[in-house]
What we know:
By secondary structure, this protein is α/β, with parallel strands linked by helices. The chain is built from eleven helices and seven strands.
Amino acid sequence: MEQAADALYKAKLIRGFCHLAIGQEAVSVGMESAIDQNDRVITAYRCHPFAVLRGGTVLGVIAELLGRQAGMSNGKGGSMHMFTPSFFGGNGIVGAQVPVGAGIAFAQKYLKKKTVTFAMYGDGASNQGQVFEAYNMAKLWNLPCVFVCENNQYGMGTSAERSSQNTSFFMRGDQIPGLQVNGMDILAVHKACQFAKEWTTSGKGPLVVEFVTYRYGGHSMSDPGTTYRTREEIQRMRSTKDAINGIKRYLTDWGILDEVKLKAIEKAAKVEIDEAVVLAKESPMPDVKDFWTDIYYKGTEPPFMRGREKEEVHHY
């Protein structure tokens, strides 16, 4: 899906911001395999995999990137703004999703639900003051919140070592315990998230989890990703740490699948993506009337909205 998005962007069919998660697949897949739809996830703008796994579709993501009505946000949100009932986005303001995540966890505790919120942010956002403010409130009230630093080692074009005096991001929670996990291994992520959910929902309070991962591409599509790191570094990570190759190795070494079955899975995935791209391209662009929809939650619209003729309001 992300490779298709890359090609569509280069063909100038996707415009604006587009942040791809190629290389970081283990985090979303491992996390989703350890939680259920009653749990909540909120992240920053590298959100496409989470949007699909948390109840969306490949078509919904690609159509959204193309700005079409079939998109998850009806073509009006783009790469950074996709949501489902259990996934609170894709958020564009650096670090701002972390206190929102703590608020979601507060609601879970208030409603006495045995569920958890994973509030995700990157190594670049880890120095935002609001992250530490959220830590403080979450520990003060022992909220079922897992603060997840998805450390891909570069905040835009700045290495973690150049921006952070303490690059052990899992140790930054003060009184909140932390874990550092291999974010390139799906099974390691799965076990860490399983543990994190059990810890937080049993009343022990919040947890900080750092997934050490890596993005192969640039920060966004406008960033070639090679001016602040070497091509050799990227190639080394691809050849030794790749999450997809890693899970393939487990499956073949343990005799669960053979090469033939793995190739069939890959072929089926490619067919699914190709079909989604075709359908996304066929979907129409948002209509002018769509400017006045989705401003409020459906059924709660006020009697008048600025910019809309009063006599048209009854069309809702």
